[in-house]
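REVIEWER CHECKLIST
Item 1: Sequence provided? yes
Item 2: Single chain? yes
Item 3: Sequence as submitted:
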Amino acid sequence: MLAAVEALVTDLSDTPEARLAQRIAGAPADPARAEAEAQLYRLLAPRVRRYGQRHLRDDHLADDLMQHVMAMAIEKLRANALNAPERIVSFVLGACRMTVTDLLRGQRRRDEILQRHADDLPIADIQVAPRLDHERVALCLERLAERERAVLVMSFYDEQSADAVGRSLGLSAGNVRVIRHRGLHQLRRCVDSRRAA
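Item 4: Structure as written out by the authors:
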Protein backbone atom coordinates (compact mmCIF):
# COMPACT_ATOMS: atom_id res chain seq x y z
CA MET A 1 0.00 0.00 0.00
CA LEU A 2 2.80 2.42 0.93
CA ALA A 3 4.52 1.73 -2.40
CA ALA A 4 1.30 2.63 -4.26
CA VAL A 5 1.02 5.94 -2.37
CA GLU A 6 4.66 6.76 -3.07
CA ALA A 7 4.14 5.97 -6.77
CA LEU A 8 1.10 8.26 -6.84
CA VAL A 9 3.05 11.13 -5.24
CA THR A 10 5.90 10.57 -7.70
CA ASP A 11 3.41 10.64 -10.60
CA LEU A 12 1.92 13.92 -9.31
CA SER A 13 5.31 15.62 -9.33
CA ASP A 14 6.10 14.40 -12.84
CA THR A 15 3.26 16.11 -14.73
CA PRO A 16 3.82 19.18 -16.93
CA GLU A 17 1.73 21.26 -14.52
CA ALA A 18 3.80 20.13 -11.52
CA ARG A 19 7.10 20.86 -13.26
CA LEU A 20 5.93 24.34 -14.27
CA ALA A 21 4.62 25.08 -10.77
CA GLN A 22 7.96 24.05 -9.27
CA ARG A 23 9.79 26.37 -11.71
CA ILE A 24 7.53 29.30 -10.71
CA ALA A 25 7.53 28.72 -6.92
CA GLY A 26 9.64 31.44 -5.34
CA ALA A 27 11.56 32.11 -8.57
CA PRO A 28 12.74 35.66 -9.29
CA ALA A 29 10.70 37.74 -11.72
CA ASP A 30 12.35 37.11 -15.07
CA PRO A 31 11.38 36.00 -18.59
CA ALA A 32 11.79 32.31 -17.67
CA ARG A 33 9.26 32.60 -14.83
CA ALA A 34 6.88 34.60 -17.03
CA GLU A 35 7.03 31.90 -19.71
CA ALA A 36 6.41 29.15 -17.12
CA GLU A 37 3.41 31.11 -15.81
CA ALA A 38 2.02 31.52 -19.33
CA GLN A 39 2.42 27.79 -20.01
CA LEU A 40 0.77 26.86 -16.72
CA TYR A 41 -2.10 29.24 -17.49
CA ARG A 42 -2.57 27.65 -20.93
CA LEU A 43 -2.70 24.18 -19.36
CA LEU A 44 -5.00 24.90 -16.42
CA ALA A 45 -7.25 27.82 -17.43
CA PRO A 46 -9.41 25.81 -19.87
CA ARG A 47 -10.04 23.19 -17.16
CA VAL A 48 -11.08 25.89 -14.69
CA ARG A 49 -13.38 27.45 -17.27
CA ARG A 50 -15.01 24.07 -18.02
CA TYR A 51 -15.49 23.52 -14.28
CA GLY A 52 -17.19 26.93 -14.06
CA GLN A 53 -19.42 26.25 -17.05
CA ARG A 54 -20.47 22.89 -15.63
CA HIS A 55 -21.23 24.16 -12.11
CA LEU A 56 -22.30 27.78 -12.72
CA ARG A 57 -23.98 27.30 -16.11
CA ASP A 58 -22.94 30.80 -17.23
CA ASP A 59 -20.07 31.63 -19.58
CA HIS A 60 -19.39 35.03 -17.99
CA LEU A 61 -19.23 33.54 -14.50
CA ALA A 62 -16.99 30.76 -15.82
CA ASP A 63 -14.65 33.41 -17.27
CA ASP A 64 -14.58 35.22 -13.92
CA LEU A 65 -13.89 31.98 -12.08
CA MET A 66 -11.04 31.19 -14.46
CA GLN A 67 -9.48 34.63 -13.98
CA HIS A 68 -9.88 34.57 -10.19
CA VAL A 69 -8.57 31.04 -9.60
CA MET A 70 -5.64 31.32 -12.00
CA ALA A 71 -4.58 34.70 -10.59
CA MET A 72 -4.74 33.29 -7.06
CA ALA A 73 -2.75 30.18 -8.02
CA ILE A 74 -0.01 32.15 -9.75
CA GLU A 75 0.19 34.66 -6.87
CA LYS A 76 0.56 31.79 -4.39
CA LEU A 77 3.28 30.20 -6.50
CA ARG A 78 5.15 33.50 -6.90
CA ALA A 79 5.10 34.00 -3.14
CA ASN A 80 6.16 30.37 -2.60
CA ALA A 81 3.08 30.04 -0.39
CA LEU A 82 2.11 26.50 -1.45
CA ASN A 83 3.55 23.70 0.66
CA ALA A 84 3.58 21.34 -2.31
CA PRO A 85 3.75 23.23 -5.62
CA GLU A 86 3.75 19.89 -7.46
CA ARG A 87 0.12 19.48 -6.27
CA ILE A 88 -0.94 22.58 -8.23
CA VAL A 89 -3.76 20.76 -10.03
CA SER A 90 -5.30 19.70 -6.70
CA PHE A 91 -4.91 23.25 -5.37
CA VAL A 92 -6.60 24.75 -8.45
CA LEU A 93 -9.51 22.29 -8.37
CA GLY A 94 -9.97 22.88 -4.64
CA ALA A 95 -9.96 26.64 -5.22
CA CYS A 96 -12.59 26.16 -7.96
CA ARG A 97 -14.78 24.15 -5.62
CA MET A 98 -14.56 26.69 -2.78
CA THR A 99 -15.08 29.71 -5.06
CA VAL A 100 -18.12 28.17 -6.76
CA THR A 101 -19.61 27.24 -3.38
CA ASP A 102 -19.13 30.83 -2.16
CA LEU A 103 -20.62 32.27 -5.37
CA LEU A 104 -23.69 30.05 -5.21
CA ARG A 105 -24.17 30.74 -1.50
CA GLY A 106 -23.89 34.49 -2.15
CA GLN A 107 -26.34 34.28 -5.05
CA ARG A 108 -28.88 32.45 -2.88
CA ARG A 109 -28.43 35.07 -0.16
CA ARG A 110 -28.94 37.94 -2.64
CA ASP A 111 -32.02 36.24 -4.12
CA GLU A 112 -33.52 35.78 -0.64
CA ILE A 113 -32.88 39.44 0.24
CA LEU A 114 -34.34 40.60 -3.06
CA GLN A 115 -37.44 38.45 -2.56
CA ARG A 116 -37.87 39.71 0.99
CA HIS A 117 -37.48 43.39 0.10
CA ALA A 118 -38.64 43.50 -3.53
CA ASP A 119 -41.69 45.64 -2.78
CA ASP A 120 -39.61 48.22 -0.86
CA LEU A 121 -37.03 48.84 -3.61
CA PRO A 122 -37.40 52.16 -5.44
CA ILE A 123 -37.47 52.05 -9.22
CA ALA A 124 -34.59 54.12 -10.57
CA ASP A 125 -35.29 56.48 -13.45
CA ILE A 126 -32.02 56.54 -15.39
CA GLN A 127 -31.45 59.82 -17.20
CA VAL A 128 -28.95 59.78 -20.04
CA ALA A 129 -27.02 62.90 -21.03
CA PRO A 130 -29.06 64.93 -23.57
CA ARG A 131 -26.44 64.79 -26.34
CA LEU A 132 -26.77 60.97 -26.60
CA ASP A 133 -29.47 59.06 -28.39
CA HIS A 134 -31.51 57.93 -25.36
CA GLU A 135 -33.36 55.10 -27.06
CA ARG A 136 -30.24 53.66 -28.69
CA VAL A 137 -28.26 53.60 -25.44
CA ALA A 138 -31.23 52.28 -23.45
CA LEU A 139 -31.82 49.44 -25.96
CA CYS A 140 -28.16 48.50 -25.97
CA LEU A 141 -28.00 48.62 -22.16
CA GLU A 142 -31.01 46.28 -21.97
CA ARG A 143 -29.27 43.81 -24.31
CA LEU A 144 -26.28 43.43 -21.99
CA ALA A 145 -26.12 40.45 -19.65
CA GLU A 146 -27.63 41.27 -16.26
CA ARG A 147 -24.26 41.30 -14.49
CA GLU A 148 -22.61 43.67 -17.01
CA ARG A 149 -25.63 45.97 -16.85
CA ALA A 150 -25.59 46.00 -13.04
CA VAL A 151 -21.84 46.76 -12.95
CA LEU A 152 -22.19 49.62 -15.47
CA VAL A 153 -25.19 51.15 -13.72
CA MET A 154 -23.59 50.92 -10.27
CA SER A 155 -20.27 52.26 -11.57
CA PHE A 156 -21.48 55.15 -13.71
CA TYR A 157 -25.00 56.01 -12.53
CA ASP A 158 -24.52 55.35 -8.82
CA GLU A 159 -20.83 56.37 -9.05
CA GLN A 160 -19.67 53.50 -6.85
CA SER A 161 -16.07 52.32 -6.72
CA ALA A 162 -15.03 48.88 -7.98
CA ASP A 163 -14.66 47.75 -4.34
CA ALA A 164 -18.20 48.88 -3.45
CA VAL A 165 -19.69 47.28 -6.57
CA GLY A 166 -17.76 44.08 -5.83
CA ARG A 167 -19.06 43.94 -2.27
CA SER A 168 -22.64 44.41 -3.48
CA LEU A 169 -22.40 41.77 -6.19
CA GLY A 170 -20.08 39.30 -4.46
CA LEU A 171 -17.17 39.90 -6.84
CA SER A 172 -13.58 41.00 -6.39
CA ALA A 173 -12.69 44.56 -7.41
CA GLY A 174 -10.53 43.12 -10.19
CA ASN A 175 -13.46 41.13 -11.57
CA VAL A 176 -15.63 44.26 -11.45
CA ARG A 177 -13.07 46.15 -13.54
CA VAL A 178 -12.90 43.33 -16.10
CA ILE A 179 -16.70 43.07 -16.31
CA ARG A 180 -16.99 46.89 -16.57
CA HIS A 181 -14.43 46.96 -19.39
CA ARG A 182 -16.19 44.10 -21.22
CA GLY A 183 -19.61 45.72 -20.72
CA LEU A 184 -18.43 49.11 -22.01
CA HIS A 185 -16.93 47.45 -25.08
CA GLN A 186 -20.18 45.60 -25.81
CA LEU A 187 -22.26 48.74 -25.19
CA ARG A 188 -20.05 50.85 -27.46
CA ARG A 189 -20.15 48.21 -30.21
CA CYS A 190 -23.94 47.97 -29.97
CA VAL A 191 -24.43 51.76 -30.05
CA ASP A 192 -22.06 52.13 -33.01
CA SER A 193 -23.78 49.35 -34.96
CA ARG A 194 -27.19 50.98 -34.41
CA ARG A 195 -25.81 54.36 -35.43
CA ALA A 196 -24.56 52.86 -38.72
CA ALA A 197 -27.96 51.21 -39.40
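Item 5: Key structural point noted by reviewer: Confidence is low (pLDDT under 50) at residues 4-10.
Item 6: Recommendation: ____
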